[in-house]
Specification:
Helices cover 63% and strands 0% of the residues. The chain has 89 residues and is mainly α. It folds into two domains: 47 residues, no CATH class; 30 residues, no CATH class. The longest helix is centred in the N-terminal third of the chain and has 16 residues.
């Protein structure tokens, strides 16, 4: 199941269980919390642990990316500029 399909599954099930309208603020909040990166607050990580959402990477790669941005990204370009400025500094 893809990430967007997992989120849709979550929203549809919650919508049905709580008998909400699609424009209900509770559903909008759930939509945002799905992507919250705080492991304690975000919904995605809990779903991934239970097998209800896909896991696309490993914790090791996440930690590596915090300090080494992937090439061909704006983050990599910014990090190179900062390294250059700090060396001259």
């Amino acid at each position: 199941m893809s990430d967007w399909a997992s989120k849709l599954w979550l929203l549809e099930n919650f919508h049905e269980a709580e008998k909400l309208e699609w424009d209900d603020p509770w559903l909008k909040s759930l939509d945002l919390e799905y992507h919250n990166v705080d492991l304690q607050a975000g919904l995605y990580d809990g779903m991934a642990e239970e097998g209800d959402a896909p896991r696309f990477t490993t914790n090791e790669l996440v930690n590596l990316s915090k300090h080494t941005p992937p090439r061909n990204t704006r983050a990599f370009g910014r990090s190179e500029v900062i390294k250059h400025v700090v060396k001259k500094g």
